[in-house]
Amino acid sequence: MNSQEHCHSRNISVQCFYVNDKTMTVEGSLKDERFFKSEVQKSDEHREKDTIHHIVVKMDVSLPQLNILSISAELPKIPNEACYGAKNSVEKLVGLQIKHGFTDAVRNLLGNSEGCAHIMNLILSMGSASVQGAWSALSRRTSQGNLPGIDESIMINSCWLWREDGPLATKIRENQSAMNK
């Protein structure tokens, strides 16, 4: 029988909040937890069982375009004070549209020594959750009627289902063609 000891856990949580017909707020949290006392490799530093990282990112995105209007990061718990230097790197994302290519753009702007890998991973999760949140927010019916829907072209090539030659992209092209006649 194989004995296992829980050593690490990462939890990412993302919530989307409808603000109005033009804005949605997306809040994300990343927590890394260590479940036993440990040493920092190649140093004399010891750490207790504890949360290692707790990072919170908040961004406002435009509806239905999914452009990042504003973004900020808070670092309530980090393993090293020097990590605070990466906090403002998220501001590079203002104006970026969440659509096919978003992952590569975020990696280019925040990857390697440009930012923080933990913040970057949280924002990537927030990007895909933003699309789902926008669909939810914009597909509901209000007392004023239907809200404007999301621009489906944002979805093209974002996944297998939405591939350019797939059934949903084909249906969108057919519908657009019929509307233009």
3D structure, described in words:
The chain is α+β, with helices and mostly antiparallel strands and 181 residues long. The chain folds into 2 domains: 8-139; 151-181, no CATH class. It contains 3 helices and 8 strands. Strand 5 and strand 6 (68-77) form a beta hairpin. Helix 1 (102-110) packs antiparallel against helix 2.
Looking at this protein, list some descriptive labels.
2 domains, 3 helices, alpha+beta, 181 residues, single chain
Question: What topology emerges from the helices and strands here?
Answer:
Elements lengths: L7 E13 L2 E12 L3 E2 L6 E2 L2 E13 L5 E10 L24 H9 L6 H23 L1 E2 L2 E2 L20 H13 L2
Antiparallel strand pairs: 1-2, 2-5, 3-4, 5-6, 7-8
The gist of it:
The chain has helices at residues 102-110, 117-139, 167-179, and strands at residues 8-20, 23-34, 38-39, 46-47, 50-62, 68-77, 141-142, 145-146. By secondary structure, it is α+β, with helices and mostly antiparallel strands.
Q: Supply the number of helical segments.
A: 3
Radius of gyration: 20 Å
The profile of the biggest β sheet is: 4 strands, antiparallel
Order of helices and strands: EEEEEEHHEEH
How many E strands? 8
Which band does the percent of strand residues land in? 25-35%
Structural class: alpha+beta
Give the strand line-up of the largest sheet: 1-2-5-6
Write down the domain tally. Answer: 2
Query: What overall form do the CA principal axes indicate?
Result: elongated
Termini, distance in Å?
68 Å
Low-confidence stretches: none
- The helix content is 10-25%
